Amino acid sequence: MDDLTRWRDEFPILSRTVYMISNSLGAMPRAAAQSLAEYADTWATRGVRAWEERWWEMAGELGARIEAIIGAPAGSVSMHENVTTAEAVALSCIRPDGPRRRIVCTAMDFPSAVYLYKGQRDLGFDLDIVPALEDLSVPADRIAAAIDERTAAVCLSHVLFRSSYIVDPKPVIEKAHAVGAVIVLDGYQSAGIIPVDVTALGVDFFVGGCLKWLCGGPGNAFLYTAPWVKAKTHPRLTGWLSRTDPFAFDIDAAGVRDDGMAMMNGTPAIPAYYAALPGLEIIRQVGVDRIRAASRAMTRRLLDLVDEHGYRSVASRDPERLAGTVAVDVPEAARVAKTLNARDFVVDYRPGVGIRLSPHFYNAMDEIDAMMGEVDRIVRTKAYAPGA
Ligand SMILES: Cc1ncc(COP(=O)(O)O)c(C=O)c1O
């Protein structure tokens, strides 16, 4: 296995904790602190001139780095505050059209997204939620089978947040396109941990964020819009950043930019962009293929230890179908997770699956063993942390 642990020094929290929760919040790169200091200094010294000197176009800087990671063409990614907003922008490009008024999603999509899909009913859309199997997977053929001529949009997670199950988007995209529906793929749990190529996939929209596997902190969600979609539609959720001449302050301005900013709306979250740049640079240098190889090996080791200790893992047992996370169901899992955190073994807990363990390229194999040893100690001794 490629030794990626030389990157550990770049992430301060790794010297203090066994940090295994990158599917929730990736570790902060040391360089993010300098980048944020640069933001503060620019604000302090350049003031409003910073907009013209860098800030107004900074979403494009971020977008270009993300495009390189997800195989997107130049000028196809826009930046948004969170994934729910990014999806809302995508959905604002479509409307119910005669009998074509159905949105297909899955029961394992992130709840925030499903609330948004449910909200579309007020516009006249119907919602078809494809149920999950017992192992909390939603196989692609089941999603494809739910798609027909009544389908306007198919919204699905590339990797399911609860079980880390990788949905093969290809058959879903093929079926959706065959019947004239658009696809919104949520890659928040895939970008940065498994290889993603939105161009090869032929997906219409792809959303994600820098918070998790891209180590960029909150406020940095993104939306890829395929060139063929951008050419023929405009979002209803729009604003002045999308216009070619925003400083004309003309309410009739119709000229829309031809790059990623065409999908943006109001004033962007500049400090979040400064925070995200170092993580994106590190992920570019390491490369997602190498990250995937290291992740697969750690996932396999975690699954072996789950078996050795006799615990249950609800999700798939196949490291090829898992994107980085192994959820381990142990007795009193919520209390065990809290105790682990109190002891600087940083994890989280999700109802229905237990403790989520999400190593990234900067974790060492011996941390996997240390983590499972600690889980086992807490389960056996029931020595929960105060308040857990
Ligand atoms: C697959 C997936 N989609 C969306 C979200 C969250 O979206 P938002 O950025 O709107 O909070 C998460 C967060 O954990 C997620 O795992």
Structure report:
Strand 3 (102-106), helix 5 (111-119) and strand 4 form a beta-alpha-beta unit. The chain has helices at residues 30-46, 49-53, 58-70, 83-91, 111-119, 140-145, 169-179, 198-201, 227-232, 270-286, 288-308, 333-342, 365-381; strands at 18-19, 77-80, 102-106, 126-130, 151-157, 182-186, 205-209, 221-225, 326-328, 345-346, 348-350, 354-357. With 388 residues, it is an alpha/beta fold. It folds into two domains: 5-23 and 287-381, Aspartate Aminotransferase, domain 1; 31-284, Aspartate Aminotransferase, domain 2 (3-Layer(aba) Sandwich). The strands form three sheets. A seven-stranded mixed beta sheet has the order 2-8-7-6-5-3-4, sandwiched between helices. The chain has a three-stranded antiparallel beta sheet with strand order 9-12-11. A two-stranded parallel ribbon has the order 1-10. The chain has 13 helices and twelve strands. Bound molecules: pyridoxal-5'-phosphate.
Q: What is the element layout, followed by pairings?
A:
Blueprint: E1 18-19, H1 30-46, H2 49-53, H3 58-70, E2 77-80, H4 83-91, E3 102-106, H5 111-119, E4 126-130, H6 140-145, E5 151-157, H7 169-179, E6 182-186, H8 198-201, E7 205-209, E8 221-225, H9 227-232, H10 270-286, H11 288-308, E9 326-328, H12 333-342, E10 345-346, E11 348-350, E12 354-357, H13 365-381
Parallel strand pairs: 1-10, 3-4, 3-5, 5-6, 6-7
Antiparallel strand pairs: 2-8, 7-8, 9-12, 11-12
